[in-house]
Request: fold
Amino acid sequence: MTVPTDPNCFLKALDGQVALIVGATSGIGRAVVDAFLRCGAHVVAFGRSEEKLRELVASSQSFARALATYAGDATDHHDLDRAATLAVDRFGKLDTLVCTVGAFDYYRTILDYDTETLSSAFEELFRINVLSYILAVRASLPYLLRQPSSIVLTLSTASFYPEGGGVLYGASKFATRGLVTHLAYELAPRVRVNGVAPGGTIGTNLRGLASLREQDKRVDDATGDRAQRIQRSVPLQVAATPDDHTAAFVYLASHRLSRVVTGTIINSDGGRGVAGTVRVAHLVEEIS
Ligand SMILES: NC(=O)c1ccc[n+]([C@@H]2O[C@H](COP(=O)([O-])OP(=O)(O)OC[C@H]3O[C@@H](n4cnc5c(N)ncnc54)[C@H](OP(=O)(O)O)[C@@H]3O)[C@@H](O)[C@H]2O)c1
Reply:
């Protein structure tokens, strides 16, 4: 049985807010753009593909006046500075930032790397998964600090447990979890900072690293029967889609719904945490 997320229950939750969404052209980020527009936000969608941004605009015609796009590289602070400025120029302010950029390491253990590929993979993965978030926050802060504001970062079950990825992906996602805590502390009381930690999610475009020649390899294609594996690995026995996570982003971004919430992470992961740190697939098989 699938229970669809009802975006209408959050209608108007983001009325009057202006959001920069970095990593907006596919997967979870794309679903967040749609949800934010439906919930009343004005959105600057940041992506690296002009073609995908044009498709986004074409499929969001009913929100044309609430949507602007910026094509750039999320690891380049100049691009992020210009995107933050675009939000203010176009919509008058910037009070919400969402970071959803990401790349994957295909579960590589430390022994799967030689020392040279370990360094280049580390640099590329941490630039995408960690530095892009830090740069987006820094670029947005001059505007976020002008009024009560909100930042939502995209973490992962790999921010908590070793099975969500390999050693580099896991370390990068632990780092973004650290960012939530540090930034929530440093930026209070003006800016709330929270995270959403999705579990395995199907129907996204998550891909590997160019330094490992895996930039065109999609996680969904590459790991066969992924939906079934995800279902077997979590107590709720569900494989999430991007839409399953959007309500968590809306809630944490909304000044109206979560004005007293900061430094929090919503684990949107089928209950992975209640099964402890051993391989839950085995536990679920035993009890079912
Ligand atoms: N999929 C999962 O199972 C899962 C589980 C837990 C957490 N997450 C996390 O969720 C977030 C979103 O992932 P997703 O699964 O939705 O994958 P996705 O569809 O690939 O989304 C990631 C987005 O990041 C963009 N991006 C990557 N590098 C960029 C750069 N340098 N500059 C600008 N944009 C860049 C991609 O652009 P393009 O469209 O041009 O490729 C894409 O739109 C990531 O942080 C991921 O780690 C995913």
The chain has one domain: 9-287. Residues 9-287 form a domain with the Rossmann fold fold (CATH 3.40.50.720).
